[in-house]
Specification:
The protein is of the alpha+beta class and 284 residues long. The chain has ten helices and four strands, in the order H-H-H-H-H-H-H-H-E-H-E-E-H-E.
């Protein structure tokens, strides 16, 4: 069992590092040379780097600024979210900052549209595989996780506000054409993340199992979520089972999948998008 856990954690670490590398490649080969901005904390770091270089005698790279911006968020994540999620998120940020520093900034194309699209797609592949393995790329993902555990409010609003600030500031300072191409990058990224993982903030898992009690305790040991159980009966076999209904955030999907696989590999699970909920979302 320990070997399986060690192998799983090793694969997760490798995936996180590959995701960080892909993000850095997208930035240094496509987005930064074209002056097209990424989303979230990476875009803020990129924008701050340009502003500091243009308006002051100082020069701070995107990689360094990204690392600095994520320090307070990582501390909050450690206190509010959980050690495993935060550790892997910090590893992702660390390696992305490292790769941003060691990979040279070289334009691969003079076409700004190609840079915007390919930069967005490559970055999204990095983000998508990282999310799929239960980690994040730091920044707003950790903030979203904290907000989802503290209050049941849509975190998409905060993503929208942050990206709107990046786009408007970039447009005002460096021309609206760059800002519009940034929108192209955001769109391409969103579509690819949709395909690899999910962009939906909340998901509903319906789990049909014969080990409801064991699974309930295992889920509660990992996730701070309420569970509703409904009696179920197999139409073909006639076996008595239970269906467990649980609403989670997209960041908890990997952990839930691991728990179900460990406790009841034969359980049938249906994951659906949740567009809205009423009532309590978390278990105290």
């Amino acid at each position: 069992m320990k070997k399986e856990v060690l192998w799983l954690e090793t694969k997760k670490l490798v995936i996180v590092i590959i995701g960080a590398l892909l993000n850095a490649i997208a930035m240094n080969f496509f987005l930064i040379p074209a002056n097209v901005y990424a989303s979230g904390f990476t875009g803020i770091a990129q924008l701050l780097s340009d502003i500091i270089s243009d308006l002051t005698p100082l020069s701070l790279s995107t990689g360094i600024l990204l690392f600095v911006l994520n320090i307070p968020v990582t501390i909050l994540g450690w206190l509010k979210v959980g050690k495993s999620f935060t550790i892997y998120s910090f590893i992702s940020v660390f390696f992305m900052s490292f790769f941003l520093e060691v990979i040279p900034i070289e334009a691969q194309s003079g076409d700004i549209l190609l840079n915007a699209v390919f930069g967005g797609v490559i970055a999204a592949v990095g983000v998508g595989i990282t999310l799929k393995w239960g980690a994040s790329t730091g920044g707003m993902d950790i903030v979203a996780m904290i907000l989802s555990r503290m209050k049941d409010k849509p975190v998409g609003t905060y993503f929208f506000i942050m990206n709107a600030v990046i786009i408007v500031t970039a447009g005002y300072l460096y021309g609206w054409e760059k800002a519009l191409y940034t929108l192209v990058t955001l769109y391409a990224s969103t579509r690819v993340i949709d395909a690899i993982h999910t962009r939906h903030e909340k998901l509903t898992a319906m789990i049909v199992t014969k080990k409801a009690d064991e699974l309930k305790h295992a889920i509660h040991s990992k996730l701070v979520r309420g569970i509703t159980t409904v009696p179920a009966k197999g139409a073909f076999s006639g076996e008595q089972k239970e269906m467990m209904i649980i609403v989670i955030t997209r960041y908890e999907l990997f952990e839930l999948e691991r728990v179900i696989k460990d406790v009841d590999p034969n359980a049938f699970t249906n994951i659906v998008q949740t567009t809205g909920i009423f009532g309590f979302f978390r278990r105290e």
